[in-house]
Amino acid sequence: MIDAFIAAAELVFTFKTLLVILLASAFGLFVGAMPGLTATMAAAILVPITFYMDPIPAIAAIISCTAMAITAGDIPGALLRIPGTPASAAYVEDSYGLTRKGKASLAVGIGITSAMIGGLVGSLVIVFAAPLLAQFALGFSSFEYFWLALLGLSCAALVSGGGLAKGSLSLLLGLFIAQVGLDPLMAQPRFTFGSSELAGGISFIPAMIGMFALAEILRNGRHGARLEKQTRVGNPFRGIGAVLFKYKKNLFRGAGIGAVIGALPGVGGDLAAWITYALAKRTSKTPEKFGTGHPEGLVEAGATNNAALSSAWIPAMVFGIPGDAVTAIAVGVLVMKGMEPGPQLLTMNPQNFYAVLMVFFLANLLLLPFGYLAAKASRFVFDVPRSYLNAAILLFCVVGSYAINNSMLGVWVMIGLGIIAYLLEARGFAVAPIILGIVLGPLLETNFTTSMMIARGDVWAFFERPVAGVLGVSTIVIWVAATVSGLVLARRRRIRA
Amino acid sequence: MGILKKAAMAAIAVVATAGTALAEYPDRPITLIVPWSAGGGTDATGRLIAAQLEEALGQPISVVNRTGGGGIVGHAALAEAEPDGYTLGIITTELSMYKAVGSSDLTYADYSLIGLYNADPSAIFVKADSPYQTIQDLADAIKSDVGALDASGANFGGLNHLSWISLVQGLGADAEKINWVPTDGGAPSLQLLVSGAIDVVVAQFPEAKALIEAGEIRPLAYLGSEPNKGFPDVPTVNDALGVNFAIAGWRGLAGPAGLPDDITAKLVSELDKIVHSDSFGESMDKLNFGVVWAGGDDFKTYLEQRGEAFGRAISSAGLDKK
User: Fold this and answer.
1) How many angstroms separate the CA atoms of A61 and A25, rounded?
2) Are B30-121+248-321 and B123-241 the same fold in CATH?
3) ipTM > 0.90?
4) What does the pLDDT read at residue B81?
């Protein structure tokens, strides 16, 4: 093992590999910080370039570029309320809330540092538990995925601002939007009105851009001259140690849970941050502060996000089952470079496997200096008067929602949902559950119908497998508890009144 | 600004515009639609084609996975795209079946056919701890009660579903009793198999290779007429059961119908070169995909025959009634 480790270090610590990591990180930083451009796009653009590289630099390019792009995606989330991924939509209210309080540096700093620590924990988990976690992930069938999706959706409804009833209504709206398109099992068109573009469904990126960024622009516009005071991004790491130390429990719990859920192919990354954000709120001494610019949930869910990102590579590397577009691209690169995914990746050429792990550590450590640079550069954003800034953001909204499928439908979706979100938020409805409904709706439905087909219509089958049973009972208990406590509260209020 | 300078600028401007007008196809990035989820066989070969075509044409090609609806979403998106050569796509076996099954009116006639690059029969897999040790064990189970077996492997009415139907019919069992669990591709079906939720998966070797090597699943039989090169020990159903059977999946490159002839011709000749290149052959070998070439009109003839053969199989299985 020591020999393999030294051989791996010789592969990674060459001028060429390190240069590739640096350049790929810089590229990922740029793509991630541009609202509307995604980590998947960044990785896809890099693929043809990796054909001309040796195996380790090639895979290093993909790893460092995506880690950086996803973390950098939190920066426009924090500064402009344009979240980069469905996962970062979980905590965007808190990071943007901090910016509105004039603590933009802190918001960016927490995002970067908790992402780095989460990523390092995730990498450690790969080192020590990759085969174990892969085995665990393989045990998940459609029954477990159904409950997991339901649990994630419940989290969104339960923790959203505005209370359970409004949260649930938002969630249902999201689930309804997810219904548009062909049904996942038998391809029956639903709410498509004969349009083939709608048959492809409503993708979440334009929806997310519209509901967060456009709605914010509309609100700003309405307030006209009474714009909030502009903030400055100073040193993003000032005071960060104290915050992280105060919430160290959240930090490591978030990273741990992220590493485990992230290993589940297909759901991991998107779900994990929502679950830990909800957990942070439930266990917090000050849950009422969540969503207003409170660091606690930000620390926990931010760590989860990057931990899940690292462990998402486990099923892809060990069993050739990629969970998302990024790992699918990575599997393609691995295969092209003669490092076929499979258990032999860990045993036959262990130096290659260790080299990949080292790249994970390096890529996550690089988040700090690059994040610092990005934060420094973004201070220019706030030198621009808000009204001009809004025009630029609007431009990014349009370009970003067009670019995702290269179609105008995305732009209309962005505008339509942006207006809806503005009206809903003015009446105290949270938009985050809508986004999660759009992302998880198809997952929930597919796994429900698949399970019902396997069980031949027997509902009890959802409780027959041990893990499914535990997840199912937990979900039901959470809902019953939330409903009962809601009713009790309402009753007390009525008695008092 | 001096008059000479102005004239020079004007000249440059004219040359620049003329340059774009006369630019040879392609002069901007191309989108390649893959109608199946990332990580499956179509995705892997599609990305391989994209990478090599990118080099040959000198323009970036972005691969877009338009999944859902058993591949119909992606196939429809390609058929309805602008026929300007800047949207191409991978078309797959399922296109031979949509019309016969009644799930969509799409046929090969909705496309400008560029070339067939791959054809592969599927194989039958069970979980490592499955009670079915050989294909004979599974055949006995099919004969005694096929309705008790949960099988999966991509969509309803797709190649793997049809292969399963043909096998069940070949063994003399009632195909109407089959319980087929549709999914979005090989990877999700294999996940259901290893998690112990279902009994059998019909999929292709490349999709299952890592799991076979991990000892999680076992191949029982190959549905081709000759044993697979990568897995010579896995018997064919023709040998093991005496069921005469050779349905194969295919994959090809196409554009929307009405592609200009010169663009089609250019793509056919480029794809011809790629498919016959050593690097493509090696990569396909490594991924364990069979390379088959049929360009332009040959591809059309191939698909005409498939359409008829699949149509017959589908109607004899009673799938067209649903």
Assistant:
1) 8
2) yes
3) no
4) 92
CATH of domain B30-121+248-321: 3.40.190.150
Which option is the CATH number for B123-241: 3.10.20.30, 3.40.190.10, 2.40.50.840, 3.30.70.141?
A: 3.40.190.10
Kindly report the pTM of this predicted structure.
Answer: 0.75
Is the distance from CB of A95 to CB of A281 less than 8 angstroms?
A: no
- How sure is the predictor about B318, in pLDDT bands with cuts at 50, 70 and 90? low
Can you give the pLDDT at residue B16?
46
Mark which residues 254-293 of B lie under 8 Å from A by CB.
283, 286-287
Q: Where are the domains of chain B?
A: 30-121+248-321, 123-241
Residue B321 has pLDDT above 90, yes or no: no
Tell whether the model's pLDDT for residue B19 goes beyond 50: no
Question: In this complex, which of A143, A196, A342 lies closest to B80 when CB atoms are compared?
Answer: A196
Residue B276's pLDDT band (cuts 50, 70, 90): very high
Using the Cβ of A410 and the Cβ atoms of chain B, whether some distance falls under 8 Å is answered with no
How far is residue A233's CA from residue A108's CA, in Å, rounded to a whole number? Answer: 8
Distance CA B101, CA B158 (A): 9
Predicted confidence (pLDDT) at residue A48 exceeds the cutoff of 80? no
Q: What residues of A are in contact with residue B106 (Cβ under 8 Å)?
A: none
Instruction: For residue B304, give every residue at least 6 positions away whose Cβ sits within 8 Å of its Cβ, in sequence order, or none.
Output: B108
What integer pLDDT is reported at residue B244 of this predicted model? 67
Q: Lowest mean pLDDT of A217-226, A243-252, A396-405, B296-305, name the range.
A: A217-226
Task: Give the separation between CA A376 and CA A233, rounded to whole angstroms.
Answer: 7
> What are the helix (H) ranges across B109-251?
135-145, 159-170, 186-194, 205-213, 237-241
Phi, psi of B114 (to 5 degrees): -100, -55
Question: How far, CA to CA in Å, does A239 sit from each of A110, A243, A245, A294?
Answer: 10, 7, 10, 15
Residue B105 neighbours by CB distance under 10 Å: 10
Distance from CA of A9 to the nearest CA of B (A): 27
3-class secondary-structure state, position A238? coil
For residue B279, pLDDT over 70 is answered with yes
A141 three-class SS: coil
